[in-house]
Amino acid sequence: MGTAAVEVENVVKRYGRAPATAAVDGLSFRAAHGAVTALLGPNGAGKTTTVEMCEGFRCADNGRLRVLGLDPVADAGALKPRVGVMPQSQSAGVPTGARAGEWLRLMAAFHHDPIPPQLLLERLGLRSVATTAFRRLSGGQQQRLSLAAAVIGRPELVFLDEPTAGLDPQARRAAWDLVAELRDAGVGVVLTTHHMDEAERLADHVVIIDRGRVVAAGTIDELTAPHQELRFRATPGLDTAGLMATLPDGCGVEEAPSGTYTVTAPAPATLVSTVSDWCADNGILPAELGVRRRTLEEVFLEMTGRELRDG
Ligand SMILES: Nc1ncnc2c1ncn2[C@@H]1O[C@H](COP(=O)(O)OP(=O)(O)OP(=O)(O)O)[C@@H](O)[C@H]1O
């Protein structure tokens, strides 16, 4: 990767006085220009804190942050016209009495070549509420207005913190189309999301964060491809230990429910031929035999654990 739009190196952020754990704890990742980078992580993983440091809203305690090659705090003035920000709280900064269209026109006035407000209102399904006060918009409409405000200045880079949280399926798709268009136009997009389908749909690069650290990163393919899973149906009660013995180290075989067998491999393996040969040698006719990759959600749960966190 050449110069990245965002470079985060060994960044640490603690809240309060020397707490036992840091909210961001030696985090490193890069986000490219003209690409969508999705930050995923359980609640409290440190995603918003990271994004807010990149936006210059918070100072890091340690480490190095560069946004478009600049320091997000020291160079905040130079970055402001070049970077779009959609904060997690959609009401952040919008006066409750401001009308949707009025607010966008005001935001547009701060930029020399803005996207026409009317176009964004149209694209994000806000035309009919253009004259409605912000406080009277639904949560999803406020969210869409916040997205529109983040991109109206044609930024080179945009940070979107949970951009589609609470949006209905139609509005999510409109938001996705907008993000994809920005990326295609060369804009760097860094977004946080809890929606795995959103990351699968949009992200060129995924960074999974847990407890303030990166636990996995790569393209969707890189993250999901190594985890193969083969399934077939056969008579219940096969000798799964015998099958295991023919498979590479680290593979697993499970019968659940009865008569359905799942073979997992932690790394690319020739599962189909090995399992087919074993079945043929044992006079078994496997039905519905097929290989599938794990989903991003499965990889995410594997990396970050399945238990619900307290805090
Ligand atoms: N202003 C603050 N003061 C003290 N602690 C905070 C503050 N903001 C966040 N934290 C703590 O820092 C940790 C990381 O929070 P952060 O909001 O960055 O996580 P997140 O990954 O964005 O979570 P979510 O997915 O729930 O939005 C959490 O333990 C949170 O309680």
From TrEMBL:
Q: Which Gene3D superfamilies match?
A: P-loop containing nucleotide triphosphate hydrolases
| Domain of life according to the entry | Bacteria
Q: Please report the record's description of how this protein sits within the membrane.
A: Peripheral membrane protein
Keyword Kinase tagged: no
Xref: SUPFAM superfamilies: P-loop containing nucleoside triphosphate hydrolases
User: Sorted alphabetically, which Pfam families does this protein's record hold?
Assistant: ABC_tran
Name-wise, this protein is ABC transporter ATP-binding protein
